[in-house]
Amino acid sequence: MLSILLQQQQGGAMMQMLFLVAIIVVFYFFMIRPQVRKQKQEQQFRNSLEKGAKIVTIGGIHGKIVDVSEKTFMVEIDSNVRVRVEKSAVSADATRALESGK
Asked: What does pTM read for this prediction?
């Protein structure tokens, strides 16, 4: 009787471990992995931007890139009005959006 009870407890513990591992696997494939892939795509997008590209920042500022440095862009938002923005603050490439909208 005691051996049957111990086997049932070990089986229950094993099921709990399998359930925990399954939850971790689900989180990885449905939450962590897609987020990492999205971050890589955004980083590639920002690194591919060049001088002359029209962009939109996270704050909604539209402008044209006039200078590119390692971590920032110099963006012209109006005649003789230039601001330096972090590359991470660029949210969209307005050049492609404008070309496809015409």
From this structure: 0.64
